[in-house]
Structures are given as structure tokens and as C-alpha cells.
Amino acid sequence: MKLYDGGRAPNPRRVRIFLAEKGISVPLVPVDMGAMEHRGGAVAERNPLRRLPVLELDDGTVLCESVAICRYFEELHPEPALFGRGALGKAQVEMWQRRIEFNLYLPVSYAFRHIHPAMKEWEIPQVPEWGEVNKPKALDFLVLLDAELALREFAAGDEFSIADITGLVAIDFMKPARITVPDELTNVIRWHRALAARPSASA
Amino acid sequence: MKLYDGGRAPNPRRVRIFLAEKGISVPLVPVDMGAMEHRGGAVAERNPLRRLPVLELDDGTVLCESVAICRYFEELHPEPALFGRGALGKAQVEMWQRRIEFNLYLPVSYAFRHIHPAMKEWEIPQVPEWGEVNKPKALDFLVLLDAELALREFAAGDEFSIADITGLVAIDFMKPARITVPDELTNVIRWHRALAARPSASA
User: Fold this and answer.
1) CA geometry: angle at B106 spanning B109 and B202, to 5°?
2) Considering only CB atoms, which chain A residues are within 8 Å of B49?
3) Chain A closest CA to B30's CA: distance in Å?
4) Residue A184: is it exposed, middle or buried by C-beta count within 10 angstroms (0-12/13-18/19+)?
5) At a CB cut-off of 8 Å and minimum separation 6, what does A136 contact?
6) Partner of A40 at 20 to 30 A CA spacing, among A145, B36, B56, B152?
7) Is there a contact between A127 and B125 if contact means CB atoms under 8 Å apart?
């Protein structure tokens, strides 16, 4: 088994954090995304969408999509449960994972990819107006999330989950996207600090 | 238990199709999205994102996000399995569910919401350029999907899954978004016809 990894990019980081939280070690194949290595060669052969990460099993089976790769490992190594426990717990993790993904991670990605000059060759065409529209969307969701995090320790409940991983990566991604967490969102700031202090954050 | 339902809108439809495939009947509370009823009242009280569908359990617990609601029912009623079987099967359904969602359903939604005049009060502000950029994205993905569907009956393998439900709803949503499946994508057309012919499609 090997994991084609993309270094600092947010999706590869999500999977590395997930594996670190599980205590699973998978051989990494580094791919230089800055040099666009994932647009051809081994990655493009394995993933027609030419994105990272890509997991290749020993029999050559390929799995793409960060959350799908994480779910594969969750099924093989159920503890600690990072996709929730029981019907309701699993649904709540899925709910918060998706809410954070669609209302924070995606808007932050759009703000970065459609505005940042370094993304000109990545996002063709850039639509700067779309990037700008997404900044307040991300901030609106953070207000909602702050109210939720006043009620509990983690995004989906009292246990750390994949929803927190997506949240950590999204908030860290706000820096290159040039969006700042407002000082008054003290619950979001407390939550982000706690996530960033876990050993997995540097995976 | 009751499901706040949004009629013809694509996300409520996904959950109704899922329930029909499972043979589960849940009391529906119709919400008139055309009259923006979901932006206030019972829906807004239960879902701060003011979106449908919303599932309310008998103890008042609220579940939002279509795929999270579906997963709740998958856990309670595992057969027929619509999220895949075994670690690899579950990961493959997740992979195709996400690929279809991010590369077809989302671009089609953007094309509809950012261009269609009827969406002016829904999508504020509309960014027509962003809508246009998404039409070729949807078509590019359909080419990739067509090659995959040449190899197997359903999106994620030989069994029907939630990835097919997302695909059916996305392709039907292309009509109001004014995007047409090209005639040469015969595998996509065969697949869509088969999905549309299932009794669940009219749920």
C-alpha cells in the first residue's frame, strides 16, 4: 500500500492527520504539486481528475478522494472512531463534516484559488468576483459554528472526529486565502487552538 | 419522526429516492420552497442554515444534510446496502458519491443558481461568469464518467448506491440549468435511463 501525497496542500494534509490520529503508518510517495507533478505521470495515470491524495493498494486498486480514503481506514481500523459511533453519532459526524466542508472549506478554497495570483495557472479561468463573494460566506458560517462550539468541545459532539480535521485544515487555509477569524469568535478560536496543539496537526 | 421536505428541489429528492430504495416510509412535512417557507418558521428554527431536508426524531433531535440523513437510515436499515459493502466497497461508494457531487452536482447547481433569472432572490449575489465557467466543468466530468460506465452497470460498481442517486438528481437538474448530455456519451445516457426507470425515481 502507498499514498501519493501532496505535501502542504489541504486535502493531502487531511488524510495525513487522520492517519496520525489512528496511529496508522502508510508509506508516502511525495508528489511536488508546486511543480504540477500531479497533472501528469503516476498521479494522472491513477486518478483521471489529477488530484491528490491517491491511495494505491497492494493489488493495484486505486482509491481517490480524501474522505473516501479516510473511510477505508476507518473500516479497517475502527478505533479511535473518527466517523462517529452508532446510527445517530455517525449521522451527526457526517452532518458536521459536510456543513464544514461546504460552508467553510469550500468557500475558503474558492477565495484562495480565484483571487491569489499564485493560483493563476491552477484555476483556469480565475473568477475574482466569485472569490470575493465567498469570503463573507466563510465568515457567516464561522459565526454559526461559534455558537455551536459554545455548547460542546468538538464540532460534532464530545469526541474528536473527521469533522474537526476538516475544520482545522479549513481554518489554517484561511491564512493564504487572506481571511481572518474575528476576535469575538472565542469558541472557534479555542477549538482551533486545541486542534492545532494535537500532535496529529503537524503530520 | 418526520421529514421536512422541499418538493421538487434536488436535495429533498435525493433523500426521498433513498428512502424509496430502502422501502422506508417517513411522514413528510411539506415546505413550500417557492414561497421561501424554509427561510423562516419551523425549518429555520431547526436548521440555522435554512436548508432542506431536515429530519426530526421523536425526541426532538434534528439531523440536517441529505447525505447525513441517508446515512442515519443506512445504519438503522442496512439492507439493501446503499453506501457499499466491506471496507473497499464502502470507500468506493464514498469516492464516487463525492466525485459526482463535487464535479457534476455542484457545477450544475452553480450554473442554475448563478444564471437562471428565477434564482435572483435565492443566490445573492448571482455571479453569471461563475455559472458559465461551471457548464464545461460538468461536461468534462461526464466524459470521464462515461468511460467508467462503459466498464460497469452503476457509478460505484455492480450494485446500485447513493452515488447513483446523486448522479440521477444531478443529471435531471441539468435541464433547468440548460446543459445537455452530449449524444455521444452513450454510457451516461444508458445509465441515466435505467436510473430514471426505477420506481424510486418518482418518489
Assistant:
1) 65
2) 99, 103, 144
3) 22
4) exposed
5) none
6) B152
7) no
pLDDT digits (tens, 9 = 90+) for B65-91: 999 999 999 999 999 999 999 999 999
**ipTM given for this complex:** 0.97
Digit-coded pLDDT (tens) for A35-75: 888 888 999 999 999 999 999 999 999 999 999 999 999 99
Residue A48 touches chain B, beta carbons under 8 Å? yes
Burial letters for A33-63: b for 16+ Cβ neighbours within 10 Å, e otherwise? beeebbeeeebeebbebebbbbbbeeeeeeb
Is the CB of A60 inside 8 Å of chain B's CB atoms? no
> Cα(B116)–Cα(B133) distance, rounded to whole angstroms?
14
Which of B69, B73, B130, B143 should be substituted to probe chain A, the one whose Cβ sees the most A Cβ atoms within 10 Å?
Answer: B130
Q: Which of A49, A64, A75 sits opposite B87 (nearest CB)?
A: A75
B22 contacts on A by Cβ (under 8 Å): none
